[in-house]
Specification:
Pept_his_AS; single chain; Jelly Rolls; elongated; seven-stranded mixed beta sheet; Peptidase_C1A_C; 14% helix; alpha+beta; six-stranded antiparallel beta sheet; Ig-like_fold; 747 residues
């Protein structure tokens, strides 16, 4: 009898939570009768039906059976997570209440196929340098957080070539029951890809690992840390249908990087020698891992349970680099769980893509709703603008493969989420191949004033999966903290008659977000390629203003507008200093910057010349002449009227001359532009060589007997002349002898 009572207690412990969940999800509980809205109105260009018909009632689609099964107090098949070294390695996958769409219809028709060129037989993100290192989750049930971050880091590494290390600790703690925007779970009770998506899509993360390091015993993390990226899209890839149906996963690896996936882990199926795994049963998945590649040739005999064919996925685990093959292992294509259920790709954008997010769904997609018998449903969220801003994009979930959608934006909605009198201010449409979280960027932004109400209305058209509307609402033991207020979310079967979703589900909201950029006053600034030069001076101006949408330039300080281009080109023809001003404007106002004397137009001139005056040198000595001009020009050098050298388009020019005869010479340089010319000249006196007399000495060309004797001694010993450091060659010694003879009268 005692055994029977214990058995009954265990069963009640399981079935009571399940019954509570099922009761809360019955059509009568979250659903409501449409048609109670006051003065229902149509979308513009629609005609209301006057026929008396039974109003459709919105209902919740069936809860994921795996989620209900997970409410059991213990696993169906007990297993040990302690390895042979005594180390505890956690798992932690917790199914979502959402039942993801099947990739095939009941008739077996494939709903989506990956397209593109033939796939390589082997692909490994490790070899491509597009995967970060393996981390260790320890004993905590946070595998889902590690797989999420691994996918996100791999995506960024592939797209940007930059390595990030995001905090798994922050995500696994901030979504738990310790926080107002958390689920009913503790860090050890696990999570899933939709919990990760909720955390990332509401801009709680990702944050840097250094600011919240991983601790498998922690339950609290700091909030408000700097977010490193904005996650605007999460793709929920369809699961496998058979062992070799791997194309979608493979193409996702090629295009996006590492793929989040789930599996059933039991160490009994792991072959430690080859780091291989193949599960052959049908237990519910219990572990999230990350696929980083594949090998179609991987030997089937490497597995403990030999499959019927070769091939394996290369999988990154979250049990540290000392486990497996540096943290990785190989899972057979013939594993009965890996890749069949929850597969996801997490992408990221820069944090400056948008300034603000409007949302009512911090817990994200919890359940799906539908109008029975229809795969079409309308949903709309009404928001109140907090500032002057521009609506740039819309975020939402699609719940089926190949879902089509239409987006309508209204200002000042008066009948539910619409304003038929004013009409919509934006209307766009599209289609997403995979279910998941998406961001549709509007072709043109919608200006919204502070305190103005605006709405996002979306028509969802699912091809086959029921429940087009993704909804956040409370579910016991999972999302009981979900909250809502009347006037936030509306639903409609046809876009004509609208009902506040909270009328039937008091704490339910649609998963629709709005992304805006804040309208800020402009800050005027500019630069230019030059600020000084000769006439005509052509200047390229570059606008460096912030938040500007229009520009007015005054190029010469006369108070008149010379250009309204953003980056104008202007030519100055007259000499002088010019003040330049720029007025930058946007819808919020304007700002002006004035730069006095910013542009200077000067005559063409030689800035410097050397030698600075006329010169006297000894014959046979090389003389260098230099000029520098204030603008590029053509330069010609002349010696006694004879052209010796010409150069084009230079600002600095040099010329070397050596004269072996005595006398007076004239060196002239002519520098000219298209419109101006300048000339510089030097008188050059060349004398015979005498190292003891200065070239401009009044003593003449005489040399004493003592100086000649000293010169002979220097020559014979290979020395330099002390006064000048000059080399005394045989030819120069002969010159000195001639000078001595002339001076002494011995010639």
């Amino acid at each position: 009898m005692k055994r029977i009572k214990l058995s009954l207690l265990r069963r009640l412990k399981f079935f009571l939570p399940v019954l509570m969940v099922l009761f809360l999800c019955l059509p009568g509980s979250p659903g409501f009768a449409a048609g109670n809205a006051e003065n229902p109105e149509m979308l513009q260009n629609c005609t209301a039906s006057t026929e008396s018909t039974v109003e459709p009632v919105i209902e919740t689609v069936p809860i994921n059976p795996d989620f209900l099964e997970s409410l059991q107090p213990c696993p169906i098949e007990p297993l040990s997570l302690v390895d042979r070294n005594g180390q505890i390695s956690g798992t932690g996958y917790k199914p979502s209440p959402v039942k993801l769409p099947e990739p095939v219809t009941p008739e077996g028709r494939q709903l989506v196929r990956a397209s593109g060129s033939n796939l390589p037989p082997v692909y490994d993100l490790r070899s491509e340098g597009k995967v970060t290192s393996a981390k260790n989750q320890g004993k905590d049930g946070s595998c889902w957080a590690f797989s999420t971050i691994a996918s996100l880091e791999s995506y960024i590494l592939g797209k940007e070539g930059k390595t990030y290390d995001f905090s798994e600790n922050n995500i696994k703690n901030l979504v738990t029951n310790s926080y107002p925007q958390g689920f009913d779970l503790t860090p050890s009770e696990g999570g899933n890809a939709l919990i990760s998506t909720a955390y990332l899509s509401r801009w709680s993360g990702p944050v840097d690992e250094s600011q919240d390091p991983y601790n498998d015993s922690s339950v609290y993390s700091p909030t408000g840390l700097p977010v490193q990226k904005h996650v605007q899209e999460v793709l929920l890839l369809p699961g496998k249908t058979e062992p070799l149906n791997n194309e979608v996963l493979k193409r996702a690896l090629l295009e996006y990087g590492a793929v989040y996936t789930t599996m059933y882990w039991n160490p009994a199926y792991y072959q430690e020698k080859n780091h291989t795994y193949r599960y052959t049963g049908y237990q519910p998945v219990n572990h999230a891992v990350t696929i980083v590649g594949w090998n179609d040739y991987f030997d089937r005999n490497s597995f403990a349970r030999v499959p019927p064919g070769d091939g394996a996925f290369i999988v990154k685990n979250s049990w540290g680099e000392t486990w497996g093959e540096d943290g990785y292992f190989y899972v057979s294509y013939y594993d009965t769980k890996l890749g069949y259920e929850e597969n996801a790709v997490f992408t990221a954008e820069s944090v400056d893509n948008y300034d603000h997010i409007y949302q009512y769904d911090p817990l994200g997609w919890i359940i799906s709703k539908e109008y029975p018998g229809s795969l079409v449903a309308w949903g709309g969220n009404v928001f109140l603008s907090e500032r002057n801003e521009t609506l740039k994009a819309v975020g939402f979930y699609t719940t089926d493969l190949n879902t089509a959608y239409e987006i309508y934006v209204y200002k000042n909605p008066v009948s539910g989420p619409v304003n038929l009198e004013q009409g919509f201010v934006a209307q766009e449409s599209g289609r997403y191949t995979y279910p998941g979280y998406h961001t549709h960027v509007l072709r043109s932004g919608v200006a919204i004033s502070a305190g103005e109400r605006f709405s996002i209305v979306i028509k969802f058209i699912n091809p086959s999966n029921p429940g087009p509307l993704a909804v956040e609402q409370p579910i016991v033991f999972y999302s009981s903290k979900a909250q809502a207020n009347p006037g936030e979310s509306y639903v409609s079967p046809d876009g004509i008659k609208w009902e506040d979703i909270s009328a039937g589900s008091s704490e339910a909201n649609l998963c629709i977000k709005a992304f805006t950029t804040v309208n800020k006053l402009p800050e005027a600034d500019f630069s230019s390629n030059v600020t000084a030069g000769i006439s005509p001076l052509t200047v390229q101006f570059t606008d460096r203003s912030r938040n500007a949408s229009s520009w007015k330039w005054d190029m010469n300080g006369d108070g008149k507008i010379d250009s309204t281009a953003r980056n104008p080109v202007y030519t100055y023809c007259s000499y002088g200093c010019y003040t330049v001003s720029l007025t930058s404007s946007n819808s919020e106002g304007s700002d002006t910057i004035i730069k006095p004397g910013y542009i200077e137009v000067v005559p063409f001139s030689i800035n410097s010349a050397s030698p600075e005056k006329d010169i006297i040198t000894f014959r046979g000595e090389e003389q260098i002449f230099n000029i520098s001009t204030n603008s590029a020009c053509n330069v010609s050098w002349y010696l006694n009227g004879e052209n010796r050298k010409s150069e084009s388009c230079v600002k600095n020019s040099s010329h070397k001359e050596t004269i072996n005869s005595t006398g007076l010479c004239k060196v002239t340089v002519v520098a000219e532009t298209r419109s101006e010319k300048v000339i510089q000249s030097w008188n050059w006196t060349v004398r015979s060589w005498n190292p003891w007399d200065s070239p401009d000495s009044q003593e003449g060309e005489k040399i004493s007997t003592q100086e000649l004797q000293e010169a002979i001694r220097i020559y014979l010993n290979g020395l330099q002349i002390p006064e000048t450091g000059a080399e005394l060659t045989k030819e120069r010694l002969k010159e000195l002898i001639l000078l001595w003879q002339e001076g002494s009268g011995r010639k």
